């Protein structure tokens, strides 16, 4: 699993409209959007933590 930096998406006037979390598994890229940065960070941390735990157990 590869996780990317959370993207901040803005409208034409520069206002932040949403935050996008991107990740890929088995070569397929996936995305999920959130209205609040804390929601995006919480969602992103789950798979990242799981991936780190898996590496430690090997």
Write the layout of secondary structure elements.
Blueprint: E1 2-3, E2 7-10, E3 16-25, E4 28-34, H1 37-57
Antiparallel strand pairs: 1-3, 2-3, 3-4
Characterization of this structure:
- The chain has 58 residues and is an alpha+beta fold.
- It is 36% helix and 40% strand.
Structural class: alpha+beta
Distance between termini?
A: 15 Å
- What is the count of DSSP helices, taking H or I runs of 4+ residues? 1
Overall outline: globular
Share of residues in helices: 25-40%
**Which stretches of 5+ consecutive residues score pLDDT under 50?**
none
Report the count of strand segments: 4
Task: Give the topology string: H per helix, E per strand.
Answer: EEEEH
Strand content is: 35-45%
Largest sheet features? 4 strands, antiparallel
The mean pLDDT is 82
Give the radius of gyration.
13 Å
Short characterization:
The protein contains 1 helix and 4 strands, in the order ββββα. The chain is an alpha+beta fold and 58 residues long.
Q: Keywords for this structure?
A:
alpha+beta, 58 residues, single chain, 40% strand, 1 helix, 36% helix, 4-stranded antiparallel β-sheet
């Amino acid at each position: 699993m590869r996780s990317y930096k959370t993207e901040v998406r803005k409208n034409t006037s520069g206002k932040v409209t949403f935050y996008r979390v991107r990740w890929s598994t088995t070569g397929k890229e996936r995305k999920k959007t959130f209205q609040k940065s804390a929601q995006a960070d919480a969602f992103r941390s789950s798979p990242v933590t799981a991936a780190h735990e898996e590496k430690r157990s090997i």
